[in-house]
Specification:
mainly alpha; two-stranded parallel sheet; 4 helices; globular
């Protein structure tokens, strides 16, 4: 949707999307609040991460791109 993504770090997801490049991950409530404060205070960094994340998702994570992995039971390989 084009927004900045801040989410809970989960196994696997943090290998698909890189913290500080495509999104921002947090581990607990205090780290979530710290990440919010950081990115609110640094709108330029937040904008850069948002743009990089949207670009990466649109290039590598659309339904059309991932359907082959699902239907053919192929593992998705991160293009990074």
């Amino acid at each position: 949707a084009g927004g900045f993504y801040l989410g809970a770090r989960t196994p696997g997801a943090d290998r698909m999307l890189i913290d500080g490049v495509h999104c921002a991950w947090y581990d607990d409530v205090s780290s979530c609040l710290a990440r919010i404060a950081h990115y609110v205070a640094h709108p330029d960094k937040r904008a850069r991460v948002r743009v990089n994340g949207e670009r990466f998702i649109r290039e590598h994570h659309t339904f059309d791109q991932r359907i082959h992995n699902i239907l053919e039971d192929r593992e998705w390989v991160n293009p990074l």
